[in-house]
């Protein structure tokens, strides 16, 4: 038997100790989960706002642990190894996969979204999606996936040295975007409604300037860029109003990247869009290339990860902690669930 937490319905999480301990298939690795990063996806699922989702579901896709056992055909990893998990299980056959775009596989199955995830003691995962990374502790390993989302968005936007990048939404994903855009040589501006997060981005992550979302953002950007506006704008808010506003905050000939996903329709002015000849991109998940890029940057100290962690709890404490953490007054930036 094993312990797990299940999101039964929106707003309802249940801890139990009666789930059956799984065994790995021939090409699978059984991971003893030790750390789970709480993601915006988990929060949206808990609140009932997550697309591609059905209840009940064991949440959790930002996963780190130790290899418990391996299947008979596994050759690349051994029991006892600390690992992180790539939670996007692609089909390998669709048009996206054939192009190496496994992050947007037509038949994607994401742990904790389309199938049960890692808010449990043990999880079988395909060998190809269990990765060992030397020099990183369990907390860092648990945040690799979160950071990979930002790394993928920056790579997809092809951020250039000397450009100006605007990151709207200073949650963990946005903080990752800030760091990887800055690492590419961009001048980064951050917009958020939370003054503490803005301060953290400027003092710890090297943001060149910050703007409160309560201010006249367009006017502030006009001043900060001498009328040019940012070359690349990333939305990481999950707020439809902010996502629509971003079209007017992007420079002529600029690129607008929607990293957030919402259960809503997004509209924009077509004359304004064409006048600027904007490039509009979505950014979904990440590829193994992005995960490896994150690991290298963490190993070399180029980016921060665990510094974002503000809240922790044990697996059995999560059902009680979750409704408190999601309150705007909680001060949560990033939470980690520990399983011991």
Plain-language structure description:
There is one protein chain. The protein is of the alpha/beta class. It has two domains: 2-143 and 305-338, Quinone Oxidoreductase, Chain A, domain 1; 150-282, Rossmann fold (3-Layer(aba) Sandwich). The chain has helices spanning 40-47, 95-98, 138-142, 144-157, 172-183, 195-204, 217-224, 240-245, 270-276, 288-299, 318-325; strands at residues 2-9, 12-19, 28-38, 62-70, 82-85, 88-89, 109-110, 122-126, 130-132, 164-168, 187-192, 209-212, 232-235, 255-258, 279-282, 309-314, 334-338. Strands 3, 4, 5, 8, 9, 16 and 17 form a seven-stranded mixed β-sheet that branches. Strand 1 (2-9) and strand 2 form a beta hairpin. Helix 4 (144-157) packs across helix 5 (172-183) and helix 4 (144-157) packs across helix 10. The two termini are 15 Å apart.
The CATH topology of the largest domain is what?
A: Quinone Oxidoreductase, Chain A, domain 1
Helical run tally: 11
Instruction: List low-confidence stretches.
Output: none
Main beta sheet:
7 strands, mixed
Oligomeric composition of the shown chains: single chain
Could you give the count of β-strands? Answer: 17
CATH architecture of the largest domain: Alpha-Beta Complex
CATH homology superfamily of the largest domain: Medium-chain alcohol dehydrogenases, catalytic domain
Assigned CATH class of the largest domain: Alpha Beta
Based on Cα principal axes, name the global outline: globular
Helix % is 25-40%
Radius of gyration: 20 Å
Number of domains in the coordinates? Answer: 2
**Strand residues, percent:** 25-35%
The mean pLDDT is 96
H/E series: EEEHEEEHEEEHHEHEHEHEHEHEHEHE
Distance between the termini: 15 Å
Structural class of the helix and strand makeup? alpha/beta
């Amino acid at each position: 038997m094993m312990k797990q937490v299940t999101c039964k319905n929106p707003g309802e999480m249940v801890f139990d100790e009666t789930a059956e301990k799984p065994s790995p298939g021939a090409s699978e690795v059984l991971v003893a989960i030790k750390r789970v990063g709480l993601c915006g996806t988990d929060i949206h699922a808990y609140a009932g706002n997550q697309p591609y989702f059905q209840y009940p579901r064991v949440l959790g896709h930002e996963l780190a642990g130790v290899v418990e056992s391996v299947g008979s055909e596994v050759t690349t990893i051994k029991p006892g190894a600390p690992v992180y998990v790539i939670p996007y299980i692609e089909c390998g056959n669709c048009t996206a996969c054939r192009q190496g775009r496994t992050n947007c596989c037509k038949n994607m199955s994401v742990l904790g979204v389309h199938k049960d995830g890692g808010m449990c003691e043990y999880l079988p995962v395909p060998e190809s999606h269990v990765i060992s990374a030397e020099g990183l502790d369990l907390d860092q390993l648990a945040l690799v996936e979160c950071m990979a989302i930002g790394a993928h968005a920056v790579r997809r936007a092809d951020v250039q040295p000397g450009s100006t990048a605007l990151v709207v939404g200073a949650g963990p994903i946005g903080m990752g975007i800030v760091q990887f855009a800055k690492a590419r040589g961009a001048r980064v501006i951050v917009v958020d409604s939370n003054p503490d997060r803005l301060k953290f981005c400027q003092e710890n992550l090297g943001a060149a300037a910050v703007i409160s979302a309560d201010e006249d953002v367009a006017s502030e950007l006009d001043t900060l860029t001498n009328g040019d506006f940012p070359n690349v704008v990333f939305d990481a808010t999950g707020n439809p109003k902010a996502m629509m506003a971003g079209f007017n905050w992007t420079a002529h000939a600029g690129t607008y990247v929607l990293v957030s996903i919402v259960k809503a329709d997004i509209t924009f002015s077509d004359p304004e869009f064409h006048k600027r000849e904007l490039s509009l991109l979505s950014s979904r998940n990440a590829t193994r290339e992005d995960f490896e890029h994150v690991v290298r940057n963490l190993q070399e100290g180029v980016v921060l990860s665990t510094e974002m962690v503000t809240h922790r709890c044990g697996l059995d404490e999560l059902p009680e902690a979750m409704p408190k953490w999601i309150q705007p007054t909680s001060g949560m930036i990033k939470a980690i669930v520990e399983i011991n």
